[in-house]
Each structure stands twice: as C-alpha cells, then as structure tokens.
Amino acid sequence: MLRLFVKTLKTGVVTERFRKPKQSELEQLGIEVKRHIDKYFSGSLAIREVDAGSCNGCELEIHALNNPFYDVERFGIHFVASPRHADVLLVTGPVSRHMQTALLRTYEATPNPKWVIAAGDCAACGGEFGVSYASCGAVANVIPVDVVIPGCPPSPEMLIKGLLGMMR
Amino acid sequence: MSHRESNWRAEFLAELKKQHIQVEVSALATMPLWQIPAKHWRSAAELAQGLSARWVSGWAEQHSGQYELNTLFAVRGDFLLLRTSVPESNTELPSQATVYPAANRSERHAQDMFGIHFLDHPDNRPWLRHKAWKKHQYPLRKDFPLSGDPEPVTAPDMDYQFVKGRGAGVYEIPVGPVHAGIIEPGHFRFQAVGETVLNLEERLGYVHKGIEKTAEGRTPEQLARLAGRISGDSTVAHSWAACRAMEQAAGIAISPHAAFIRGILNERERIANHMGDIGAICNDVGFAFAQMQFTRLRELWLRSNRQFFAHRLLMDCIVPGGVSCSLTDEARATMRQELKALRKELDEILPALDLNSSLEDRLLTAGWLSEKTAAAFSAVGYVGRASGQDLDARRDAPCLPYERLNFEVIVESQGDVASRLWVRVREIFASIKLLRQMLEQLPAGVIQTPWQTPAADSEGIGIIEGWRGEIVTFVRFDDNNQIARFYPRDPSVVNWPLLEKIVLNNSVPDFPVCNKSLNGSYSGHDL
Ligand code: SF4
C-alpha cells in the first residue's frame, strides 16, 4: 500500500493543464469545449461510442481521452454505457453491413436532441474499405452526421477539436 | 531442436506413403509444399496430429479453374504447407475439424466465402455470413462482384441457431453486438445458473468489411496500407507479415537496416499494447492505480512514436521493400534514454501490483486455460505461452533482425488471468532488451529496396510474431503486379474459441477481465 501511495505522490498530476498552463493548445480547446457544453448541456456531455466496423485504431485514441494527460471528464465530457443516456453518438469505422441495423437502432434509441460525430477517415468517407458487398462506407450513408473528425486515427487533440466543432 | 522436431516431416511423408496417399512434393520459398488428393484431406490431418503437429492456419483460394484448400502445420519451427484441390463443379471434401478443433471456424469461413462443402463438419452453421449476402452467394469467388447486391438496409441475423441451455434455474444472457464500453462489436450468448457461467457462445462477424475481397487487384503499396488496417493495434505486425509475403513472392531481400527498423517498430507496438492491456485488466477488477499509471506510460510511449516515426500507432511505416522512415543518431540516443526511464518507472510500479492482495484475489485462478486445451486449440501468443505453449515466431520462424538478437521466450504453465498478465509484463522487459540490442546494432543501409514485379502466379507466406501472437499471411499475385489472393490469419482466429473455454465455471462478472486477458481482435478475426 505504501508503495502505491509513494508512486502516486511521486507521479503527481500529469494532466496537461498543470504542466503547461498558458501555451497548451489542448487546454485552451478544452476550456472552449467546456464553455460550449455548459451553454447547451449544463456542464455535461454524454457520449456513446459506437464502433460500426472500425479496425479498432480509432478506439485506441478515443480511449486515450480518458488517460491522465487529457482527462476529458474534467470538461464534463463522459462516455456512457447506453445510447439512452447519450447526447452524442461518436461513431467510428466504415459501417459494416452487418452493423448497419445495430447502428440504426442505436441512433433511434438516442433521445433528441442528439448529435452524431463521425470519427476517423473510415467514418468520414469509408477510408481504405470504401463501399462494398460488406461495407456501407461513410457513416453519413447510414445516419445523419453533424461533425466529421478526419485522421487515421484522429489524435486525441483532434478528437477534442472535433467536439468543439460540434458545439458551434 | 530435438531429433523428433527436425524429422517430423520425414515421418509424416513416410506415414502418408504407408497409407498409399499420393504426395506431390514441391516448395514455397523455403517451406515444403505437399499436394495430396482431396479424399485424403482428413486422414492426412489425423496423421499430422499423430505426430503432434500444430494446426497453424487454413485457407481456400479459387485458382486456375478449381478451389485450392491449404492447411499449414508446424512442429516448432518446421512448417509444412499441405494443399489439395477440388473442382469448381464439386466442392466437397472431408473436414479436418473433427481432428483439429482449431480448423472448425476456419472451415466455416471457407464455406461461407467460397462455398466449399466440408463433409462431416461438426458445426456447419454459417460463421462470417450474417445477412449482407445471400445463402448461395460466395463473396470470394471470382465471379462475385466486389459491390455485391446488398439490400438498402441489411437486416440483423435472427436465424442463427444458438446452443440452448435447459434445466432448473438456467437463464440466458445475450450481450452485444454493441457493448457498454469503448470496444469492438460482437455477440456473446451466456447460459448461467446464479452467477456461474455454464456455457458461452460467441457470434462474431459483425465487423466483416470485405478485407480479403478489397485486397484483390491492389498494388503492393495499396495492400500494405490495407494490411496496416486489419487490426489497428497490430498495424506494424500485419503490414510486416503482408510485406514479407509479398517480398517472398517477388524474390526481394530487404536491407538489414530496414529489417532492424521493422523490428524496432514491432517491439514498440508490443510494449504499447502490453502496457495498455495490463492497465485495463487491472481496471476491470477495480484497481485504478495501475490503469492510471499504465495509461500514462502508454501515452508517453505513443508521443515518442509520433516524435520518432510521425505516427502514434506507427501506421504505414512498413512498406513493400522496406520501411518509410529511419532513425537519426539523435533519435537513437533519445530512445535509449526513454528505455532507461521506462525501466525505472516499471520497477516502481510493478511491486505495487505484485503485492496487492485484492488484485491477486481476483486474477489468480480466474479464466483458467489448461495446457491440454491450449494445445488442442492451437493457442498462440501470450495466451498460449501462459498455458505452456512454447511458441514464438521470432524464434521459430526467424527473419532479420531476430535471427541476430538474443532474447528469451517467456513461457508459464499457470494458465490463469494472472499468468497471462505477468507473461506480458515479462515480455515488456524482453522487448526493452531487444530494442536496446537493435539500437546498438542497427546496420547502415537503405530504407527501401526497389520493387520488382513478381512472376505471374507467385505466392508467399509471411509469418510474424506480433504482440498478440503469430500472424500468418498468404499472398498470391496475378500476372500484373496485382494481388490475386490475400489471407491474413490473425492470432485472434485461433485464440477466440478459447474464451468460450476459459469462462466456464467463472462468475458472469468476471467475464470482462477474462475477455480482456485474452483480448482477441474482432476486426482481425472478422476481416
Ligand atoms: S480511420 Fe484509420 S484507425 Fe480509424 S477505423 Fe479507419 S483505418 Fe482504423
């Protein structure tokens, strides 16, 4: 137990705000996200992540949003387990045909008002996989999309920027 | 290498002859390739099993007016490719799945994609086919267009016959395809009594996006990009395996410099994933300290990836003929410092994991996989190695740089979640040592060897030990430098069925940690 506390104390707070209070672009972005989120959602934005056929690369970077460097929860952004609790669907991947109905149902289960972010090149345009017998391509081919975050995969900074784009 | 291992192929050949099975002997690069008549397909598998050969991979191909079936066997580093063919007019042949359970889903894959009919297959339900294409359509046949003829909205597959459980107090829990966390989609069907799992059935194929079909007609560069997106966490390993197969087909030797850079990329990918998963496994049993520390270390690691190689996950660094990037002397010095710092951090964090009794309580004995089951199902990677399977393609199918490096293959026999976790911890240390050696010995040379158009019909097999385990990739070219067939066998293909075994008699709430300790790739499996 002691080791645990020692390491925790020694590690300190690595969350970016404290490391580079002025210059950090991430922090400025975050503050802006927070301001927009506050206006529409009273300080809380619930996101349901849906992998509709991704290679899992996008998920790795979305996961990173919760690491101590980005810690998006402090901006009121949190990931929820059910679409029924969500304001935003964050969709990755080309939509595989086998996931098409599941994505449609998830979209329907999300209460209004709702926003859809297509994250990653696959979600944006089909990426390497395109449209085929097995893939519907871009998310917009299946459900309406409000914001597109490009990148393969988008970096955590890009993802935060994308959230900002949605709020404008 | 024991006498037995080096001679198993000779014994196998003798046994085949004894059974009057006609064998046409040839070779694929350095690997023996034996062609046998289709009617002996199962008997040959029985003989291979009698010699304790491991079923490594199986795939089909429509080639020169017939369907070819391939099974790759190995005893340690001695691989053997067995091939047969059936005419397009009659696609029947005996199944090997009754002999090798690992062949089960692989044959169902060939059944759904090519319309191969395996006689006496123990389970001929569809596997990859849900509702995106119809029952008698086979997407990997040459006359099936890439676009297919899908409905505007593909219906969910409600016809799949799941195993049913009956009896007092037995209830069923369906989970997915969309899961509660930020993870890939797939369906799990549990039968439970109280909290105890009686049976688990996986239903995968949800992220099938036609990778094998879209690969056809691609140039080598385009295939490398696609291979780097089979499973985003294994982008290095998959693109390496694909490039190695293509280079073998084209008869290209990459420079030792490029090979070392590939090795550095591969070990960096291994460390990144191991760190992420160790944190996540601990988090699944509520030990947030480890999750925070390891996600912190992983983030630092990914930032260095971007600094050294311009991509956090190292995508597109491996290209046909070599690599797209190199390391300056300065970068090498920085990386050496980074390795030292990582070691120091791990030395501080790991004792806190090791001595934590609540962690021990949850991870020890959970999700147990016996050596016998691991061997029967051809388990690979850390899943196999934690259950006594002494397999590592870096040692068993070595290529540069590994054949010039010293390292230890980590093998344990405990077989539980704890063991899979600690195997991965020890593999991080082994990878740090490998990275040090590679930085030390990095030979000078070009990063990319010019491409040569391979002869029509040439084929290649790339075997690479990625972080998840052994990847086996088959490639064939047509007469125009384009891909005619691409089949990457992700380690998940053989490891996924083991999840159904390890959760038995565990409690339902332990499923996430069991699943995470195995960590199959859905995308790598579904293709
Ligand atoms: S955008 Fe790139 S990382 Fe994301 S799912 Fe597509 S291929 Fe994978």
List the keywords.
heterodimer; A: 168 residues; alpha/beta; Rossmann fold; 39% helix; B: 527 residues; alpha+beta; Cytochrome-c3 Hydrogenase, chain B; 5-stranded mixed β-sheet; 17 helices; 18% strand; binds iron/sulfur cluster
Brief characterization of the structure:
With 168 residues, chain A is α/β, with parallel strands linked by helices. Helices cover 39% and strands 14% of the residues of chain A.
List the helices and strands and how they pair.
The complex is a heterodimer of chains A (168) and B (527).
Chain A: H1 2-11, H2 16-19, H3 25-41, E1 45-51, H4 57-64, E2 77-79, E3 88-92, H5 100-109, E4 115-119, H6 121-125, E5 147-149, H7 156-167
Chain B: H1 3-18, E1 24-28, E2 31-35, H2 41-50, E3 54-63, E4 66-75, E5 78-87, E6 92-94, H3 103-114, E7 117-119, E8 170-175, E9 187-193, E10 196-203, H4 211-215, H5 220-227, H6 235-250, H7 256-284, H8 288-309, E11 318-319, E12 322-323, H9 329-354, H10 357-363, H11 371-376, H12 381-385, H13 393-396, H14 417-441, E13 459-465, E14 470-477, E15 483-489, H15 491-502, H16 511-518, H17 522-526
Parallel strand pairs in B: 2-5, 6-7
Antiparallel strand pairs in B: 1-2, 3-4, 4-5, 8-9, 9-10, 11-12, 13-14, 14-15
Helix pairs in contact in B: 5-6, 6-7, 7-8, 7-14, 7-16, 8-9, 9-14, 14-16
Query: What's the total helix number of chain B?
Result: 17
Number of domains of chain A: 1
CATH architecture title of chain A = 3-Layer(aba) Sandwich
Q: What best-fitting shape of chain A do the alpha-carbon axes yield? A: globular
| End-to-end C-alpha gap of chain B | 35 Å
| Class of secondary structure makeup of chain B | alpha+beta
Strand content of chain B: 15-25%
Largest sheet of chain B: 5 strands, mixed
* Rg of Cα set of chain B: 23 Å
CATH topology grouping of one domain in chain B: Cytochrome-c3 Hydrogenase, chain B
Average the pLDDT over all residues of chain A and give the rounded result: 84
Please count the beta strands of chain A (DSSP E, at least 2 residues each): 5
Largest interface: A-B, 54 and 64 residues
